[in-house]
What does this fold into?
Amino acid sequence: MHEFSICEGIVKAAQEELGRMNPRPKALRRARVVVGRLHAIVPDNMELAYEVLTRDTPIAGSKLELEFVPITAKCRACGWAGGIGPPVFLCGSCLSGDIEVLTGRELYLSNLEVEQDGDE
It folds into this structure.
């Protein structure tokens, strides 16, 4: 389950970012992560990994929100651009295999929703 190793980096990044905030937040409510479909993330596995890896940490109880980015490509042969999918990556117009993948590789922590003292 590669979701655990990916999630380790996300949890570490979230904790480091919270440590840099001034004033320090009371709690983390939600961590939003952008994930390209090429990573083949299984949402349930990622959420389980997040729950396990945040247990007994300052961000325990926060939620993980995943935003998936589709795989898109541009054909070098005919210029077509659009969505593609596994298991075969071909141009959606001329069926050429000479494509450049444009999106789908993303993997980053996009934002943290925090609770400050005085928030309801």
Summary: The beta strands are 27-36, 63-69, 72-75, 81-83, 99-103, 107-115. The first helix runs from residue 3 to 20. The longest strand covers residues 27-36. The mean pLDDT is 93.
